[in-house]
Amino acid sequence: MAVRIVTDSTSDIPLPVAKEMGITIIPQNVHFGDEVYRDGIDISNDAFYKKLIKGPVFPTTSQASAGVFAQTYETLAKDTALRQAQDTAEILSVHISSKLSGTYNSALLGRREVSGPCRIEIVDSLLVSLGLGLVVIALAREAKAGATMEQLLVLCKELLQRIEIYSMADTLEFLQKGGRVSRLQALFGALLSIKPILQVRDGEVHLKERIRSRTQGVDRLVGLVGKAGEILDLSIMYTTAPKDAQALAARLDPFYPEKKARIYQHGSTMGVHLGPGALGVTFLKASDP
Amino acid sequence: MKGKSTTAERHSLDGEILRGMFLEATAWLEKNVPHINSLNVFPVPDGDTGTNMLMTMRASLSAAQELPAGKDGAAQVLQAMAKGALMGARGNSGVILSQILRGLANGLAGKDAASARDLALALEEATQAAYKAVNRPVEGTILTVIKDISTAADATASAESAIPAQVMAAAVEAARASVARTPDLLDVLREAGVVDAGGQGLLVILEGALAYLRGEDLTSKAPAISVFTHPSQKESLKPDARSTAALQTYGYCTEFFIQGEGLDPESVQQQMASMGDSLIIVGDESSVRVHLHTADPGSALSYGTSLGTLHKVKIDNIDEQHQEFLAAAEKQPPTLPLATVVVASGSGLIQVFQSLGVTRIVPGGLTMNPSTEELLRAIENAPSQRVILLPNNPNVIMTAEQAKSLSEKEVHVVPSRSVPQGIAAILAMDPEAKLADNLGAMERACGNTQTGEITTAVRSANLYGFRIKPGQAIGFLEGILVAAGKSQKTIAKELLKKMEIKDGSTITIYVGGEADKKDGEEIAKWLQRRFPKAGVEMLFGGQPFYNFIISVE
What we know:
The complex is a heterodimer of chains A (289) and B (553).
Chain A: E1 4-8, H1 15-21, E2 23-26, E3 29-32, E4 35-38, H2 45-54, E5 60-62, H3 66-83, E6 89-95, H4 103-112, E7 118-124, H5 129-144, H6 149-161, E8 163-168, H7 173-178, E9 181-182, E10 195-201, E11 204-211, H8 214-226, E12 231-238, H9 242-252, E13 262-265, H10 268-274, E14 279-285
Helix pairs in contact in A: 3-4, 5-6
Chain B: H1 4-7, E1 13-14, H2 15-38, H3 49-64, H4 74-88, H5 91-107, E2 113-114, H6 116-133, H7 142-157, H8 164-185, H9 187-192, H10 197-214, H11 241-246, E3 252-259, H12 265-272, E4 277-283, E5 287-294, H13 297-305, E6 309-317, H14 318-329, E7 339-343, H15 347-355, E8 360-362, H16 372-381, E9 386-390, H17 397-406, E10 410-413, H18 419-427, H19 435-447, E11 450-456, E12 461-463, E13 466-468, E14 473-477, E15 480-485, H20 488-497, E16 506-511, H21 517-530, E17 535-540, E18 548-552
Parallel strand pairs in B: 7-8, 7-9, 9-10, 16-17
Antiparallel strand pairs in B: 1-2, 3-5, 3-6, 4-5, 11-14, 11-18, 12-13, 14-15, 16-18
């Protein structure tokens, strides 16, 4: 029986894709005041962004509880047992960087609650969004093809190191409120209109560059992809500007020949932190020769 | 009275005489500052040579005057002057002057008194030091003048019987002729119809020194006006009165109580009125409180002692006070891996840099050119061993390099030539990139930023084919005059048409302290209409001299 792949909704994997690949997604919670929604389940992306832009309440996010993890693992274990009586269920659970969210922690706690024979490996990706998503999708593909847990763990570790994520936010407002960016202090109260280019590295979000205009920012993103060398997988993310994402994809074609870069919309969790108008790229570099 | 009439016949000049010469030279320079400033081919008081050279000389003199008795031989006096000038140098002309003093000090090393031969050698050293200080020496400037001085001094000193006064006289004559020739060597001078300001400053300094030697009294003399009139020029140059007024805020804030009998505050007020500015006299017949800003606190105190006893004497260096105030206003973060020090004038521009997280900001002061010492203090003050320094003005780059050479920290100068370049450079910094990459990115950012400056001419000028009259609106692109006319709004539009503005460009208008905000708004609106895909921003800069600084990125 194939290893079951689990991740969380910060991976921004669209539900249809997850379903097709057999990936289980555990949703974060999005809070608008007293209202709580499960990311991607109780609230659609469109509805979320409408609420985000219109206000007046500013949303926050929280990780899925240990209980939800325990439940999800148990359900998967039982499901496996049903299908293949002799096999111990094997679950590979890969999650958003522990430095950005308590999700990984919830997973660890949840695992303790699972009864019955089950092997659950939990990995802290030190990544987020499609950085996490691309790896999870690749793992799911291999799992479907029959890879063992050992093989998947090795692959996982290897892939995670070759992922790069860059994102441009349109404004600092949401990043400031989300409080997840180190060294953003210098930008607080900036008198000039500045857009940040962010990079996820070592499990954290770093300010890579400060730019004055959107056009400049898009040029930078293109440049960052351009100097990465050979690219095996490329995806473009956006929050509320799909046309910008398409334009960016077109410009990135030369760096990713033969295949087409996939375009994804950020889910609520990422949306809360990046805000409207964000644009980003995630890619998997070829391994060093 | 010291033997002034016999000083001219002396075979060697000791430390006291040399000090007296430079004191007189500085006093004469001060009188000539308005005229020297008016020679600035730039019709904006930004970087006024006369003021910068005077500040440099004052710094050098205050160092020389602190020498203890017995330790004030010729070598020691010049050494102290060189050190003082080094720290107090402002602007390129100030830096070169400080190097001339350094050369003189080197030439007189170990000597208690200077003979004619010694002087000539010292002037030769001074010439070499001056040329070495400049990256790309240009003839027709103070460099040519010191060179010509040195040649004449050498020739005069070769005579067996030569005495110092003769060498000085030859030096002054050579300087005069050299200054008059500078328009022949430098096109921009010829076009403007002026001689080189730095050269003129040096001439004036030598004139004052020679006058001291000869016992001549220059105080009643009107400043000599050395004018080269371009054949086509109809107007003669007039000294700029505004510059003298501007000098008033420098010096020492001097306060003390005079206690005695039969004191007359009104009489004290009258007597002290010419000693300085911001004079406040309060008191009665037994106690008078004095407050004033003066370059010579000693005279004020001496006057006080002639009336009674002095109490609660307080003398503060006004520049230093200002610096301390700024330093205290800043928070002290823990040690940083990298600190940034920038030069900026204008409360708004200072705030912009603060909002960008710059570590230390040095105000430019009167001529927008801070001294070496001010930059050095900011570097030492910054909580990091590694400092990037942004001068934001071409006339501060040399001072910045000077400060770097004096600091024991690892200092890197990114030669930004305007505030917009400086801002772009700061934005280009990636706190996690390698230093070399950062420096490269910062320099590229400077190169990719266009700077326009709009203001009103304070004096006539002949520059790049324009005939400028005082009161005209003028526009500069990268420091070069490209537009002149009646209204600043019109000039701004002309200037902007010459700048490269694309979709996605960011245009920022910094409004100066004396600018009309409505003009700025109109310019911004015009820009937005003409370039709908560019980002247009307007901010209060509060900068002096330039009503609008426009940056295009």
